[in-house]
């Protein structure tokens, strides 16, 4: 049972809403933990259905910045780093008892008063500005045009890093989504962070203790760091095993060209269809280095074991074979041999991983736990 939070005038701030993904689901559950709290954000590109979910049925209205009115901004909003940094500081927080930001870049920079606690739930210090900056700059291409882009981007990232460091000093209490991110926060910002894992909506992913179909599954947006290519290539080398790949993205053509006939691409699925796909699979595959990684936990909510890269958030959300009541298999390198070995390990112990234990582990991440911890934190700080 959720505790009833005393009448507090809470404001929520989230970077942006390009769709519903990890950070947006966190913000949606904050809106449920603090009903009526308005959500301040830079951009809103949601469908009506998505907006209804994110705002708790409209109880937490979205207050969107003027940048959202720029022509065609949905195509280039991610490049407006310095403009977003300036705009987030314009949100008026006067009159609120407490401000909670959900931040992967900007929202922690909102300006609050001296007697106005600011809790920042940080999904990660922005990787493109810090440890992945060289990779980001390399992605801008070669030749004269690439050199010019890198020169401009280098100057922009330098300014953004200075702003990023300055804003974290105005935050009163930092919450990290995992121990992995708490370490990154200490490295980049020199601040300690309390860990509260993100919320999982268990009702969206019904449990299956019965018979399963003869396939494995993975699901993700097709972008390089998700390493869907690694999973597809690995299963192409095992034509005796079937793989379903859920999702779309900019790398789709390249990844599909790597696939053998045992790999099926479903495209993007509605929530109910994706849950059904997870529920009936032998195991879920995960190859990304993630800050937390909500999708492997959603698969475990269905009672489905997970075969995951065991670095980053996955090391906290999947119980490997070295633990009691394991929920999957962890492997230690993003390579085909390492993933092949993990698949073979899973096949050897498949019957020993019990769906009930997998579901029970996922229960510890349920949304009600998250809501209660955030309510308690606000009351402690107030």
Helix content: 25-40%
Mean pLDDT: 92
Structural class assignment: alpha/beta
How large, in whole angstroms, is the Cα Rg? 21 Å
Total number of β-strand segments? 13
Helix-strand string: EHEHEHEEHHEHEEHEHEHEHEHEHHH
Which term fits the overall shape?
globular
Strand order of the largest sheet: 3-2-1-4-5-6-7
What can you tell me about this protein's structure?
It is built from 14 helices and 13 strands. It is globular. With 382 residues, the protein is α/β, with parallel strands linked by helices. Helix 1 (22-33) crosses helix 14 (367-381). The model is unreliable at 1-5 (pLDDT under 50). The strands form 3 sheets. It has a 7-stranded parallel sheet. A 3-stranded parallel sheet has the order 8-9-10, with helices on both faces. The two termini are 22 Å apart. Strand 2, helix 2 (48-54) and strand 3 form a beta-alpha-beta unit.
Summarize the structure.
By secondary structure, the protein is of the alpha/beta class. It has helices at residues 22-33, 48-54, 81-88, 133-138, 143-168, 179-189, 228-236, 252-257, 271-279, 294-301, 314-317, 336-349, 355-363, 367-381, and strands at residues 10-14, 39-41, 62-64, 98-103, 118-122, 173-176, 194-195, 216-219, 243-246, 263-267, 284-286, 306-309, 328-331. Helix 10 links the parallel strand 11 and strand 12 (306-309).
